[in-house]
Write a structure and sequence with these properties.
The chain is mainly α and 503 residues long. The protein contains 21 helices and two strands. The protein has four domains: 30 residues; 288 residues, no CATH class; 84 residues; 64 residues. The longest helix is centred in the last third of the chain and has 37 residues. One of its GO terms (biological process) is lipid metabolic process.
């Protein structure tokens, strides 16, 4: 009874405080400052482009979802994912072409099942849709793109290069130290011969290692266990071959508390949003609507952060290793809210699927540009622009495709709004990079570096404000599908806070 009394008083206090805040916002929504702040958002939502990309056609390609049990949806999907990965370490079939043929229906299964079926626990459908499309993009790269281009994944090449360097150092030390013991007993001529042999041996070993790096990557369909673990975990991390000292990495104990913090904030946001239906959000006054949108953005950010910390925590528990901040870059990134340019924003945004898109989009397009769009065809400047612009658009196109697939598979909402959002941001990144390399950008950077601390704060503050306007002008494309469906209401069943306090 005492616990129920405390919870009741806390629920009453929260409800009273929320009501007072909403009353204040509704009373001041007609202030000029509110309309000024909402101008970028309203300009976008009233544009013809926004109306075109968010229009929901009454004639859908797929009908309503068929409801099946949670287990019947999730277990076969997980089994297909496991089989697709495990086939790389199975010795049979020996033919890579047969493995490609066997993988194709499994990939199609992952694509179409989340679009056609759902389950009573809606959150499971949400989660499996994201996992399925992320796995599809990864499998297309592993089974088809890499064998076609003949270029192995950079995770494998990076790890091989690191091992080759370590082997070369061991070979150098062993080959140089062993003759030194015998050198004192030999004549001068023989000493010279021994040193020459050592040098030749070292050079040959290095050359063989370098050659082995290419040869070892020759069979993309049959992996050993070491490569299997590398390919399984590496897309979630930044792989450069550089590692921090073991003491710098974070253990699972270090990751547990921030994971709980992010998840608690995410859970509390679900509780706050559960008081609103989609219709009430759309009809809310300006300031109240602005607060709700800010909370929804925080909902997305904290959900992603909790997911990233959970993945890093699982990595530590399963592998027994520490999470290296040079690899799990998101753990140390600053909040994207304080980005001063589109490039700075996406560098500090989450890395949950970034490297999957980089592998499937950025790197193949970059190689294509180098091979087929060189200076002899486009000229020096045109070739440089192609190498800098097209790979960026390829990455954002894949990201837009994935997010568009998700909103269509979940709610039959049009994917074009997501595509528009990511293409606009791709353009922002391209322009931002061009400005940074231009005379104006270099002059601004020099002024920032030479300026006082106050001047640097002002310049960064101006950049943050400009990015805030940019986000307000582009966010409607991304958030439209989520607010129309009231996405927060469909996941409140997993909220511990909602269960604790009720609505």
């Amino acid at each position: 009874m005492a616990i129920e009394t405390v919870l009741g008083q806390l629920r009453h206090t929260l409800s009273l405080g929320t009501d007072q805040l909403m009353t204040f916002l509704r009373a001041h929504s007609d202030l000029p400052i509110a309309h000024i702040l909402a101008t970028p958002w309203r300009w976008t939502t009233s544009s013809a482009l926004f109306a075109a990309v968010t229009y929901t056609s009454p004639n859908q390609l797929f009908g309503p979802h068929k409801v099946i049990s949670d287990g019947l949806l999730n277990i076969p999907l997980m089994a297909a994912i496991v089989i697709l990965y495990r086939m790389f370490i199975w010795p049979y079939p020996r033919s890579g072409r047969i493995k490609q043929i066997l993988a194709f229906p499994l990939i199609l299964y992952l694509v179409f099942v989340p679009m056609l079926y759902t389950c009573p626990t809606v959150f499971y459908h949400f989660m499996m849709t994201v996992i399925a499309i992320a796995t599809v993009t990864r499998m297309v790269d592993l089974y088809y793109v890499q064998p076609w281009t003949g270029v192995p994944s950079r995770y494998y090449l990076t790890s091989q290069a690191a091992r080759s360097a370590a082997d070369s150092k061991k070979t150098d030390s062993s080959s140089s130290s062993s003759p030194s013991v015998k050198v004192t007993k030999l004549t001068n001529g023989q000493i010279k011969t021994a040193r020459t042999t050592t040098t030749t041996t070292t050079t040959t070993t290095t050359a063989m290692t370098t050659t082995g790096l290419v040869i070892g990557a020759g069979d993309p369909f049959h992996w050993d266990q070491e490569r299997f673990h590398e390919e399984l975990w590496s897309p979630l991390r930044k792989q450069t071959g550089k590692k921090s000292p073991p003491s710098v990495g974070r253990s699972w104990r270090d990751l547990l508390f921030p994971f709980l913090v992010y998840y608690t904030v995410f859970d509390s946001i679900i509780y706050f949003l559960s008081f609103y239906t989609a219709e009430e959000v759309m009809a809310a006054p300006t300031l109240e609507y602005g607060l709700i949108v800010s909370v929804v953005c925080s909902y997305v950010y904290n959900n992603l952060q909790a997911s990233i910390y959970m993945n890093a925590l699982m990595y530590c528990l399963i592998t027994g290793q520490r999470a290296d901040p040079l690899e799990w870059t998101t753990l140390n990134n600053k909040a994207p809210l304080f980005a001063y340019s589109p490039t700075d924003f996406w560098v500090n945004w989450h890395t949950l699927f970034r490297y999957v898109w980089v592998d499937l989009g950025f790197l193949p397009v970059q190689r294509f540009c180098k091979t087929h769009l060189g200076p002899e065809r486009l000229g020096r400047r045109g070739s440089q622009w192609a190498r800098e612009i097209l790979p960026v658009y390829a990455v954002f196109f894949l990201s837009g495709f994935m997010h568009g697939y998700i909103v269509y598979a979940w709610w039959r909402q049009p994917a074009w709004g997501q595509m528009a959002y990511f293409m606009i941001h791709a353009t922002g990144v391209v322009i931002s990079n061009a400005i940074e390399r231009s005379f104006v950008g270099k002059a601004l950077q020099q002024s920032y570096n030479d300026g006082s601390a106050m001047k640097q704060r002002v310049m960064r503050g101006v950049g943050i404000l400009m990015m805030l306007v940019f986000h307000m002008a582009t966010a409607p494309f991304f958030i439209d599908a989520y607010q129309k469906q009231g996405a927060w209401l469909e996941v409140k069943g997993i909220s511990f806070v909602v269960r604790l306090f009720g609505k």
